[in-house]
Amino acid sequence: MGVVAVLVVIALCVLLVMKLRKKKRTRRPAPAADPPVPRFRVVTVGLQGSGKTLLLTGIYRRLQAPADRGFFLKVPYTQLIELNRWYRAVASSEDDWPSGTSRGEMREFDFSVMTNVGGTPTTVLDIGYLEYPGELLTDPDAPGSTLQQQLLGAVANADALIALIDGMQLLQAHRGDRRGLSILQTTLDAMVHCMLTARAPIVFVITKWDLLDQLHADENTRLKIVRNLLMGVDGFRDLVNAHSERRIVRLVPVTAVGHDFAVLDGSVIRKKPDGRFQPANVELALSAVVPDILHQVELSLDAHTRQVIMAEAQRRTKMGPAEALRTLSVFVAERAGRILAGAVGGGLITHAGLTLLLETRTPPGPEHAQRLAALSEADRRAEEFILARRRVVASLQHQVAMLETRLPASRLRGD
């Protein structure tokens, strides 16, 4: 009986060992963590009625699917419900315009920039979109309120700024309407005052661009007319002259409804019952954010530092992703890295942001395929992630280049 018991124990041990060996053979390695995802902070300012809600809705609707761009935006589901509700109100000829942000109201949206990495939709960039009512800049703050200080702090620390200029005010000013010109002047003074000391690139968005169709048949000529009007405002002209050499300042015309959807009836914009809803240029303000930040970083560097950074970018193309991440802290501690870290925004770019700059400055060399084959599975996934993100940035840069080709007047430069 004792011998039988021993044989049973031995048999069980053999079965257990075989099972463990089989499990070890079939066990898959833990999925590798993707490289860090940089998050860029965008602050948007515009007076009530300037079109902030329509712009935000248009941006998401235009970029929610990959189309021919190779990337798309995703938001948390609760924000998606809100955006869809606004969109239905905007696009319906039978509904009133959706209510915008009122004084004291702040809205923040989280845009994840997604693309395909190894067959899986993956977040490669994050954009925080913070929207403030412009009245916080033009009116005294309510007793006990800290919203005005929050706005000023957000502008000072933003990675990019979007300032909305109401196209209706521009039309009134162009026509010589003193009240419209006064409101435009007050709005620009307030926005320019808080942006003069900020370091981030700026996109001035002209909303309700369709109302200005009557100025000229050619869109770039219309934009020149509006640009000349704005450059006649002292504060606006001073900002462009002072910052355009080492700071990106844009003027982007946007219609969130299209050129055949609404009509100006006196001082009221009404939807046409048979209007055609076809937004134009709505995505360009957000698409310019990452390319402008990266380009502005380079503009802020002296020639020697730029050479050091390009050499570092070239050196990192020969590293595996894990090694590149390990060496980043050493690079940041050096002079070039310290200068780079303080180049935009509130004076700080995250390690993830520095990684993005370095990985997009130098394309992979001819030996890249051979090196990729020699990487571990974990590093290959990280390398695919980096290549996918580089393609997204290239797509964004292409959109900006197309904008400047189609509308040369959109890039603001000093006298």
TrEMBL record:
Q: Which Pfam families match?
A: DO-GTPase2
Mind telling me which InterPro entries this protein's record contains?
DO-GTPase2, P-loop_NTPase
Tell me the ranges covered by the Double-GTPase domain, including all copies: 44-222
Q: Which SUPFAM superfamilies does the record cross-reference, listed alphabetically? A: P-loop containing nucleoside triphosphate hydrolases (SSF52540)
Q: What is this protein called?
A: Double-GTPase 2 domain-containing protein
